[in-house]
Write the structure tokens for this entry.
Amino acid sequence: MGYVKLILKGFCMGAANVIPGVSGGTIAFIVGIYERLIRSIKAFDLKWLGMLCHLRFKEAFDCVDGKFLAALGAGILLAILTLSKVISQLLDSHPAYVYAFFFGLMLATIPIMARIIKVWTAGKIFSVVLTTIATYFFVGLVPFTTPEAAWFIFLSGALAISTMILPGISGAFILVLLGKYQFILNAVNDRNLFVLGVFCLGMTLGILGFVRILTWLFNKYHDLTVTILTGIVIGSLRKIWPWKEIIRSVTTSHGKVIPIEEANILPSQLNIEVLLALGIMVIGFVLALVLNSSADEKSLKS
């Protein structure tokens, strides 16, 4: 049953990753597997590589908490395979409802993270406010034109995967901001193995390096790191506000319109659709609290 739960948690993470602007790291935090996920990824090191070279496959598998990663990965893959089309259709037909649900989820993350810190000081509050303001303006940036050189493709992969494991910031959003979202999609559709290879290499090295930085920060500056992550979540709420006005967009080769510049707006009137979206937002909020309360371990706690 423990692995069934992990598959379900991975399924929730996969569902979140399908939504532009929503981070799977947020869901990992809510369901209580964030710290374990960081530790598992960090275990991919030279010691693990040595085990593989000496054909000690079982030891290598156990070293990285292989059963945990396999169950989580299976859930993520299952969600992507089963929900991608459904969520894509919902985003086209009822985007406010989808974003309202995940807005509620992320909103509930704030008190979940805040209660980890036992004593709040003026300095910790200031770090939350500062990070919130910085993230708020960051997620509102307009995508810009960037080079298509191999070094930048590598950098894009490293940055996208690193932010993907942070609560609040979506890896897909980083690609949009760097002007490489459509480029990578085209590479997938065209089977451009060189571009995909460089991008995947960047993702691999990026996440292996970033989890070590994150682990060091948790060990040395635990409360400060949690306050910064809390600020990131609060500021990122701007990106998934349910009601938006599209200012500028691009159209993919398959005719899909991808917004690249949007403005948050308030509903023009309080009608049934708005009330339903607010109700879905409340459901997302409550569900996040329920998932967190039933988690097997509390994320980020030592």
